[in-house]
Amino acid sequence: MKSFCLIAAKISTLLMALAVVGCIAGPELNTPVLAEKSEQLRIMWTHVYPDKRGLLLLGQVRRPALSIGLLGGHLHVVGHLSDGSPPVVVDTRWGSMSKRGSHMASFGALLRSEHPELIDMISVEYRARPEK
Q: What pLDDT does 70 receive?
């Protein structure tokens, strides 16, 4: 059963990646991504790609093994710019999360910027409540 859930999670990630392939304008970038720790949601991996409109951040999240019920909230993504100008901020949700097994889901966020080369670091944080 565990291997089935792992395979399902990988297929879900692959389908999401194929859906955005048309948006990706080049190979993966080595922009560092700082994933803030949270007890409710763990950011498993992230990848950053160039896009015509900025930078595309793709990743996968996972809930703790024994968690039950729905998980509200969102991921708060901040692109920090090297020239000191205000950061690029976007909030995103993850896709449907399996209720059993791996509790994994994919997410994506587009950091819109006319100068994506100035984004020198990205931070991702789970937030349980909406922004005010």
A: 76
Give the span between the Cα atoms of 13 and 16, in whole angstroms. Answer: 5
In three-state secondary structure terms, 20 is helix
For residue 96, the model assigns a pLDDT of 85
Please, are residues 89 and 77 in contact by the beta-carbon 8 Å criterion? yes
Q: How far is Cα 62 from Cα 42, in angstroms, rounded to an integer? A: 5
Local mean pLDDT, 10-residue blocks, the chain (132 residues)? 54 52 73 93 95 96 80 93 95 83 87 95 91 62
Q: And the tokens for 93? A: 């949700």
Distance CA 95, CA 19 (A): 13
Structure tokens at 128: 């349980």
Confidence (pLDDT) at 18: 46
What Rg do the C-alpha atoms of the chain give, in angstroms? Answer: 15
Q: Which domains does the chain have, with CATH numbers?
A: 2-127 (2.60.40)
Three-state SS at 3: helix
pTM: 0.78
d(CA 105, CA 101): 12
